[in-house]
Amino acid sequence: MSVGYEVEQAVATVTLDRPDAMNSLTAAMKGELLAALRRAAADGSVRAVLLTGAGRAFCAGQDLREHADNLESGLGLANTVREHYNPIVLTITSMDKPVVAAVNGVAAGAGASLAFACDFRVASERAKFAMAFTGIGLGPDSGASWTLQRLVGPAVARELLLLGDAVDAARALELGLVTKVVPGDHVVPAARDLALRLAQGPTLAYAATRRALDFAASHSLSDALDLEAGLQDECAATADHLAATKAFLSRERPRFEGR
């Protein structure tokens, strides 16, 4: 297995585990990653997800050796964008629980795109992000054209995607690519602390917030207001909202159960 999966304290940790290959993605690994993410999405005991990489890299993107073999065999992209990358990104962005990326090193190409699809990115001081697509004669995939410009704006996204220059952790923080930067040895613990905080929060309200943000990004204000009204009706009927309202009136700290 090249993707690890474990659940502790309502946090599912998904680990890309091909350290000798900088966690570059083969077809088999992408299948395992999609299965792990779908497992986390469907597990009612999981209330937050942590995505990271083993060794010195987060993910170097597509395994180019496998890709070169596919090109030599006349398979081209072997439908991997539609079959693997698209459903992986959609699973990250559509699950009803927040996802935190612990970017422990290089995140390049599709690897960077995976991090950008998460709600939060905690980066090591050693982390680097590279939109490596044009460097091998390809356009962006794995949602980079959508997520990147929403993080840094269209002008910077265009620069990063067209030029493909690597962005170090300090610059990534300045641009808004990452949530925070921590010393290298602290990146997974720091990201896990954030995931634990989210796992103890109002899970259904987080899901509603994610839906509202994604919808508003491509719809009118009027449509966004309609969706917000519907989502508020749903949230108002949850046990967490009722308990939190009572706790506020009693000047107590609310305890959320994710229902």
Highlighted features:
globular; about 260 residues; Lyase 2-enoyl-coa Hydratase, Chain  A, domain 2; four-stranded mixed beta sheet; 11 helices; 2 domains; alpha/beta; six-stranded mixed beta sheet; 2-enoyl-CoA Hydratase, Chain A, domain 1
Order of helices and strands: EEHEEHHEEHEEHHEHEHHHH
Major β-sheet profile: 6 strands, mixed
What structural class do the secondary elements suggest? alpha/beta
Strand order of the largest sheet: 1-2-3-5-7-10
First and last CA, distance? 33 Å
CATH class of the largest domain: Alpha Beta
Describe this structure in words.
With 259 residues, this protein is an alpha/beta fold. It folds into 2 domains: 3-199, 2-enoyl-CoA Hydratase, Chain A, domain 1, CATH 3.90.226; 203-249, Lyase 2-enoyl-coa Hydratase, Chain  A, domain 2 (Orthogonal Bundle), CATH 1.10.12. The chain has 11 helices and 10 strands. It has helices spanning 27-42, 64-72, 80-94, 110-117, 144-152, 154-163, 169-175, 187-199, 203-216, 221-236, 239-249; strands spanning 3-8, 11-16, 48-53, 57-59, 99-103, 106-108, 120-124, 128-130, 167-168, 180-182. The chain has a 6-stranded mixed sheet, sandwiched between helices. A 4-stranded mixed sheet has the order 4-6-8-9. Helix 4 crosses helix 5. The protein is globular. The mean pLDDT is 93.
